[in-house]
Amino acid sequence: MKQPISRRWPASGIAITLLLLAPVAALLQQGLLPASEVFTELASSVLGDYIANTVAMVVLVGLGSALLGVPAAWLVAMCQFPGQRQLQWALLLPLAMPAYLVAYVYTDLLDYAGPVQRALRHVFGWSSPSDYYFPEVRSLGGAALMLALVLFPYVFMLARTAFLEQAGNLMQASRTLGCSPWQSFVRISLPLARPAIVVGIALVAMETMADFATVNYFAVNTLTTAVYDVWLDYGSLSAAARLSCLMLLGVLLLIGLERRGRAQQKLFQRGDSNQRFDPYRLRGWRGWLACGYCVLLLSLSFAVPAAILLDYAIAYLDWAQLDKFWQFSSNSLFVAASVAVLTITVALLLQFLARLEVAQWPAQLAGFGYALPGTVLAIGVLIPLTWLDYRINDVAQWLAQPLPGLVLSGSMVALLFGYTVRFLAVALGSVEASYKRINPSLDMAAATMGCGPGATLKRVHLPLLRRGLLTAAVIVFMESMKELPAALLLKPIGFETLATYVYQFVSDEALELGALPALVIVIAGLLPVWLLNRSLEQTH
Questions:
Q1: How far apart are CA 472 and CA 340, in angstroms?
Q2: What's the pTM?
């Protein structure tokens, strides 16, 4: 029995979706306008270098993440060795560590004046840089390594899942035919997991394109830094929009690659994936070597930076700065909580419409903003809000009233709207997964008892969706606490979050003074990692 639907339900969903897609439409419209003088000058001078650096970063970080994450995923999924059970969730912890914090810590450790090179000079008696060679940390390769250390868990997570889902009889057959663990990995496990690995690399590539702080700190000019510089230094919104359109094209290509990888995942598996596979038991030095690799990877990507931040926070604690810390913490909490409420409300409405089979496309399109880099999204948000600000001021002038100024683009409206567009996809995914666990017969029973759509949502769906909504709210809350590029461009004047506050210290190369808020950001990122690991354990 299908429930009668009031027109206001689909109308509200369509209106919200069109509003959320406005930044993308504004970018495309602005990008089709004649090129500005600023963009023309960039195109004739440094734009080629920006594009080349962006492509190089995407390739290097994707390759590095695969080289780090795939071996670790196979070891914890297919082998038994000391610490294997603990490491399979601990290797997700780097997701909680912002890349620019890792970049600062290792630059401080590895620079010429850092403790590593000082120790080398002391041990070997070197007196100047000409006496020895040491890789340059502040370089494109150094930035790629820092990002790979933080982003490899995307590849690790998807590859581990793919390895666990492989048919046990195939693994047993390879063992019966005398294949060593290495041969089974190369000939069977890796080809079967290749689509999942491609998906992970595509996600890493999108995160790499979105990164601003790390590449800016290492003085690597990419399209992301170009968008930021053109808008703030030259004040050219049209040039920033054109650069954003170039990045949008790259993101669309990566999304196509990711979806193709997901489609191919269905084609490779043959055999009974429910049959349990007896894992390889690595004994002696082989087991400790596997453990050592995973522990080293975890230490370099999370434990060492976290320990150094903790040491900084204790050694450089400035009681006089605590007032600012509490103020900016409250700002971050307000923004994150507001965005969490907005996203789960919108996600619930759109997925409810999809559940009623009224309109499927709003839920499918509304989450597109998550694929946009923060700087690109910020420019897309500023274009329509700035246009509205001008129209509001025109009306005020026509009415002979005081001009209100930038009431939208210069206020919290821009920041909250940008964050909502950015993180709505997270809430949509969680709510959709929860809805799939609700039996459609409950909707039919509610309709039989005379419940309309609103009553069904309130009395039937909401109690059953409570866990999914809470999970979505927590993840969006923590992601909002960490978001930096969008905050730098959209925050009102004089308003700082923990992320922008910490980035000021990073830019001034004085992270020691901002270590306490940096630690809070890291700790805030641990809860979503715990939820992610819990969901993976329930799946397998």
A1: 8
A2: 0.83
